[in-house]
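Subject: Interface between my chains keeps coming out wrong

I've been trying for a while to get a sensible model of this assembly. When I model each chain on its own everything looks fine, but I need the whole thing in one frame so I can look at the contacts. Pasting all components below, labels as-is. Any help appreciated, I'm running out of ideas.
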Amino acid sequence: MTQEPTADRPRIDAYEKVLGRALYAADQPITGLLHAMTVPATIAKGRIEAIDATAAQKVPGVVRVFTYEDFSQIKTTPAARGAYGQPGKGHQPMTSPVVRHRGEAVALVVAETLEAAIEGAEAIKVRYASGPFSARMEDELASPEAEPDRQLSSGDAQAAFAAANHRIDVEYLHPQQHHNPIELISTTAAFEDGELRIYEGTQAASAFAGGLAGMMGMDPTRLRGVSPYTGGGFGQKNGIQEQSVLVASAAALLRRPVKLVMPRGQLFHTASYRPRSRHRIRLGADEQGRLLAGLYETVQQNSRYDGFACDHGANPPRMYGYRTWQGSDRIVRVDTQTPGHQRAPHEHPSSYATECAMDELAEAVGMDPVEFRLANDTQNDPITGKPFSSRHLAGCLMRGAEMFDWNRRRREPGALVADNGGLIGLGVACGSYKGSMTAAVTTLRLFASGRCEIATSGHEMGQGIRSVIAAELIEILDVDPTKLEIRIGDTGHAPQHITAGSWGTGSVAPAARSAAMKMREELSALTGAPLSEEPVHVQLARTRRLSLEVTVNTIPLGKDGQVIEQLRRGIPSTTGPEYPEFMAFSWIAHFAEVHVETSTGRVRVKRVVSVADCGRVMNRRTAESQVRGGVVWGIGAALREAGETDPRFGGVLNNDLAEYVVPVNADIGTIDVDFIGEPDFKLNMSGVKGLGEVAMVGAAAAVVNAVYNATGRRIRHLPIRIEDLL
Amino acid sequence: MRSLSYVRAGNVREAIEAFAAAGEGARYIAGGTTLYDLMKLGVERPAHLIDIASLEGADRIDTRGDVLFFGAGALMADVAEDDVIRRDYPVLAESLSKAASQQLRNMATVGGNLLQRTRCPYFRNGAIGAYPCNKREPGSGCAGIGGVDRGQAVLGASDACNAVSPGDWPVALTAMDATIEISGPAGTRSVPISDFYRLPGNTPHLEFAIEAGEIVTGISVPKTAAGRNSTYLKVRDRESYAFALASAAVALRMDGNHVRQAHIALGGVATRPWRAREAEALLNAQTIDREIALAAGRAAFADARAGEHNAFKIELGARTLADAIMIAGGKIQ
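Reply #2:
Try treating it as a single job with all components included. I did that and got this:
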C-alpha cells in the first residue's frame, strides 16, 4: 500500500477527456444512424388542431415525420418521467394533441442527416387552439395546492417567537434557474443483439429498463441503458427525458437507430429546472443570542401534472439548536414543464433564505455572525432528538474564520474601503446536505497479468467517481491504475442506481472497498496463507489461475437484502438522512469577500474560503474541484442567474448561454478550500459522507451577507443585480 | 438539406459582380460570427454566400496619414492590439477588446461588426417563441414593448421597436466621427457614421444605410488629439463576454485644464449608437470634476423614456458616462 488514497492525484480519466478520446453518449459510432429533430410548441397551453407536414416530407433526406398520432400507444406509467416516485399524473408530449407547456415537442422529424432533420422540422406547420395559462406562480391562473408537501415541528414555535427578545420576519425570493450542463441532453436508440440500447448521458441508466420499457410495453430485460460519461448532470439528467421515449419509439417503428441531440434553446423548455420559490422566515432569539424559535414557510412552483415536491424545510431546522421549530412547504401549479432536482435542489434556496435571515438576526441581537452560529451549535437534531453521526460545523467555522482573517470584519456596513474607493463587505454562511447511501452490486475481477476490471453501480458525471473507485482499489489491493478498467453507468454490466443526492461516493467507495477486501479474502483462501507484501496479481499468478472474480452486494445501513432486488428493477432505494441511531449530514462554512463599486453598484467577489466536513476525503484534487465548482455556482446564483419568463407567452426568454448569465472566469476571484477530514465510520466503512451538493449550500448566502456588510442593503431576492445597488 | 452556393472573391469588384450574378438570397460573408448565428436562428436563410474574408488588402490598418484607416476585413483582435491605436486612441482599442471573446475577436472583422444585429430576445427567439417582432416580420408587432424589457432601449425607441443596438465598436466610432466607406454596383461612396444607423421609426427592420449588393470596404476616423484622453467604459451583467447594459465612449480634447471639445457616444441604452451632443455641449470649456461629469451624464439621458424594468438604465447610463468622463479626463483610473 504505497499510495495515500486521499492524495492529490489526477483524475483517472483526465487524459482521455482532455484528448477528446472519451466517447460520450451522442458520440457512439453506430452504423445506419438516423438523425431526429423536434418541433417545439409555440403556445403555452392548448391543443393541436392540425399539423401540416407536406413540405417537411418533401425535404430530401427526410425519412419520416412523427406526430402524436404515431405515438398514442406510449403509456404514461407511474414510473414515467417526472413523477419522482411520488403520485403524479405525468405528461408525455406527443401522445395526444394536448399541449401543456411552451416548447414541448409536437412533431419529430427523422432524416438521413441532421441538416435534413432540422430543415424538415422548420418546415412543419402547426395550427393550435390556444387556452388561458399562467407560467409564473404570481400570475392569476397559478393554483396553490391546498395541502403542504411537508411539515416539521418541534415545540410551540409560535409562542416562543412571540416571547422572544429579538425577532425578524422576512421573505426571500429565489428565481427559476436552469442547469445547462455543457453536454446537451441526447438520446440514441438502437436495436443491437436483440435488445434495445438507449445511449444517453444520464445519471440513471436503469431508468430506461425501469420506466421506458413500461412506457413502450417492452420486457425490461430487453432494454439496456448505457451512460458512458455524463458531461455534467447536476440533477437535470436524473430521469427519463421528455424526448427519450419519442426517440426510442421512432427507432422501434423505423427499425433503424435514431439519435436526437436536443438544442440548448429547446432544453430550457423540455428539461427540468430549479423552480422559483418564496421563503418566509421568522426567527426569534433571547438576549444572549440563543435561538428560541424558527418558523419557516416556503412555496415553490411546479407543473400542473407532476409530483416534484417542495422540500425546502428539511435542512434548516438541523443547522442550529433551535428550541422550537415550525415549518411547512407548499407547491403552486403553473403551466410549465416539470421542475426537478438541480444541485442542492432545496438545500441551496433554503440555505440562501435562512442563512441570510440568520445574518439579519445576528445583527438584531448585536452578535458577530460567526459567534452567533457557534453559540447555537448543536450535536443533536432538534426535530428527532437523534445525535448526528458526525458534525464538525463549528470546526468548519473556526478554521474558515482563521483562513479568511474574519476578524477584519466591521459590524457597521461600508466601514472597510478598498484603495479604489470600492466598499468591502465580508459575509459568512453555512450549509448542510443529507448523508445518503444507496445499494450497489459490484463485480471485481483480478487477472494474473496485473489487469483489474470492476463493474459497479454509479455514473461518472464529472464528479470523479471513477477516481474514487480507483482510490479504494489502490488502497486495498495496490492495483496499477493504468491497468484498471472501470465499467459504470451501464445496465449491461451492473444494475444502476440514480447517481444523485451526493450518494455516489458514499455508496461506491464502500462498494469498491468491500469488493477489494473480499478479493483479498478469496485470494488468501486460494493461496492457503495470509497475503504477503507482494503484488496481489503476482500472488494470484502463483496459483496458476488466470483470474479471480468476486461479486459483492452492498446494502446501505438501515436496509435489508430486498434493496438489491429494488436496485435491479430500477426502483430508487436510498437511505438517509435519518438512520436508526443517528442523523447524517455533511456540513460546510463559506466566507465571502465582495467589493462593491460605488458609482455603478457592480459587485466583485474577490475571495471565498470554504471549509467542508464531508467525512473522509477520497481525492483531494477532485474534492477541491467539487467545492470550487459549487462555490462558483453559488456566486452565479447570488449575482448572475435567472430564467426570465414573459407572462404573456410563457417559456424562457433568455434560453441560450449568452443571455442566461453564468459567471465567466473574470467573475471569479480566489477560492480557498479546506476539509476537516474526519472519517465518519458510523455511516459506512469508507468513512465518507457526500460532498458534491453540500459544496454549494450556503455559498450564495455568504455572498449576499457580504453585500449587506459592504452596502448596508438587504436585497431579499436573487440574483442581486446592478439595479438593486444603484 | 437546404443547399447553398459558395464562392470566394479575390477583390471588391469580383465580390460585387458575384453578388449580382448570384441573384436572390445572396449574402456576403466575412468572419461569419454574426451571419452563422443568424442562420442558426432562422433570421438569415442565404442561398448564395460570397466570401469576402480574403479580399485583396481588405485587412489593411493604416495610422500614418491624417486619418486612421481600417480595412473592413481587419480582424477585431488585430485592431484592438495595434500599438498606435492602443496608445493614441484607447477608446477604439477598448471598445474592441471589451467586445465578445478572444475567440470571436480572432474571427470577426471590424467591417462586419458594424452590421451586428440586436440581442433583443424576442427578435432572437423566432423558432421557439414565434414572438411578434417587427424586425423579423414587419407588421407583426413588438413583444419587447410591455414585455420583459430590462435590456431594452431607453433612448431612440419607437412604438414599433425598442430593441437595443448591440455594438461597442460602432459606439466608439460614433464618438470619433468616423466615416464608412462603401462600394457597390453603382460605385463607391462615403457615409458619415451618424447617417449609417437608422432609428427604428416605423421601419425597424431597416437598420443600416446600405443597399443590397454593397460592401463596407473600410472605416476612416479623423485623427484628433482627443484620442489620447479617451476611454470606452462598458458596464454589463458580468465582467466579460456580455453585451453592455450601459456603455460610454468619451474622448476629450483639452486646452490646459479645460475641455475644448468633447466626443461622447453611448451604447447599450439606445436603438442605435447614440451621440450625446447635449452632454458634449455641457462639458465645453469646463474643468472636469465629478459634479460636472454627472451633470453631463444626466443631460445625455434628459429625453430617456423607460418601460417597466429598464428605468435603472437611465441612472446607470448617466453614472457610466460620468465615470467615463472622469477616466478620460485623467481624474480616476
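Reply #3:
Confirming on my end. The first strand of chain A starts at residue 34 and ends at 40.
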